[in-house]
Task: structure prediction
Amino acid sequence: MTKKEKAMPIGRRAQAIQQILDQLYPDTPIPLHHEDPYTLLVAVLLSAQSTDKGVNKVTPTLFKRANTPKKMVQLSVEEIQQIIRTVGLSPTKAKNIHKLSEQLIERHDGKVPENFGDLEALAGVGHKTASVVMSQAFGHPAFPVDTHIHRLAHRWGLSNGKNVVQTEKDLKRIFPKEHWNKLHLQMIYFGREYCKALGHHKAKCPICLLVSV
Result:
């Protein structure tokens, strides 16, 4: 921890970071194209270890063929994989999309459940995916943390967590609950524009300049 970090308590640092993010990103549209909770769920599942841009290239074709669980199960796993073949881990993701669609029909009358337990019980749905759906589809407070947000939180001195689970706990403790959903997206946008994993220039990053990490 630098002398500047020691001089700035974590509460003040978080407040200053949030002010910068609010100035830069007052509006935070969801970067994944979707129509409703189901298509968002599928898009988020596809985004694992893939770029949002890559996912947005395949979902129009996929959702034109099947934008509901009942339509999706009418496709074979092979057909789904062919449509999403350019996305990373497409064989596994195709199987999970087909399976979770079956599960939604069998367990939830074809609707996406509005709670973490039922979401995380679906094929291929982990805590981060469930958090995105809960926050962005249903408006429940959640702070989805992926490897990128984990990196930013550590770089900005907001968390020293060794994994995304601890980082999520730290961020939830630091920031007010009513801001979690927006902050998640703001951090994603900021990380892509100013605070990249590779080729990062601290002098050009307004938050890293502030906290001097």
